[in-house]
Amino acid sequence: MAPGALSPATGAARGWENFPMTTRVHRSRPFVQVNVFSATAYAGNPLAVVLDATGLTDRQMANFANWTNLSETTFLLPPTDSAADYKVRIFTASGELPFAGHPTLGSAHAWLDAGGTPRGTSIVQECGVGLVDVRLDGARLAFAAPTPMRRGPLEPALVELVASALRIPPADIVDHQWVDNGPGWLAVLLGSAEAVLEVEPDPAAIGDLKVGLVGPRQPQAQPAFEVRALFGVNGSMVEDPVTGSLNASVAQWLIETGRAPASYVAGQGARLGRDGRIFIDCIDGQVWVGGHVTTCIAGTVDL
């Protein structure tokens, strides 16, 4: 997938030549909003994608991401690594992330829909954590889970803090782990999916923690696990509808410890009225995180 890297001077690369040249001269840029991790439109996690961010400054990207007020907004750029098909920058309303899951699948879907053609058998995305492979998995897309930047059990004092923030006894936490693959996630395993859905966290106590909750369902039930993602932003607590990065590192943890099979489906978003589904497959030691993506809004944006 190394040949044919994009030349900023000519704009010649697979996919990018499909964008009108006017987008490089004027302020009108192709733009989509997509629904990630659900086959039902508006039931997953929304993502805004600026398909040609060439020439935008960091401030312009940050300001637009803040304005969309979505969990993430992505900006597609020519790759700087010759092995990549495109480069993506991922912004929340308050800052930039080196990696995130639903922006990875949503950006790949948008790039393909805009005429992008991978040079190899999979799409190679360049982002803050390096290169991430994205493959077609039937009607779904799936990304290769990156190696966590931080692993291992939580410190005892942090377990107490997390339990307090979740308003549960520490004894209800079956296990815990750092599962940070860029955003800073930590995860706690509760006894059941029902226990996860019943948690009523203390918004003031979440602080700057990024907490993933996971609980199993009864054998043979689908989805096999229920997941929630809670984090603090500017003094308030936010619950993410469906979180690819968290599910990626949680899957690595659960499979390695024998708590989950090599393939399973996780659900997320029920407490928010969403119906997220994350498809996990461990193939030759590599965890793949898959989901459906649908385009809900397409047009242009002035930037």
Describe this structure in words.
This protein has a 17-stranded mixed β-sheet that branches. It is α+β, with helices and mostly antiparallel strands and 303 residues long. The two termini are 31 Å apart. It has helices spanning 22-25, 58-68, 101-113, 156-166, 193-198, 203-206, 244-256, and strands at residues 28-36, 45-50, 73-77, 86-91, 96-97, 123-127, 130-137, 140-144, 175-178, 186-189, 210-216, 225-233, 236-240, 263-268, 276-283, 286-291, 293-302. It is built from 7 helices and 17 strands.
Provide a quick synopsis of the model:
The chain is 20% helix and 35% strand. By secondary structure, the chain is of the alpha+beta class.
Which SSEs are present, and which pair or pack?
Blueprint: H1 22-25, E1 28-36, E2 45-50, H2 58-68, E3 73-77, E4 86-91, E5 96-97, H3 101-113, E6 123-127, E7 130-137, E8 140-144, H4 156-166, E9 175-178, E10 186-189, H5 193-198, H6 203-206, E11 210-216, E12 225-233, E13 236-240, H7 244-256, E14 263-268, E15 276-283, E16 286-291, E17 293-302
Helix pairs in contact: 3-7
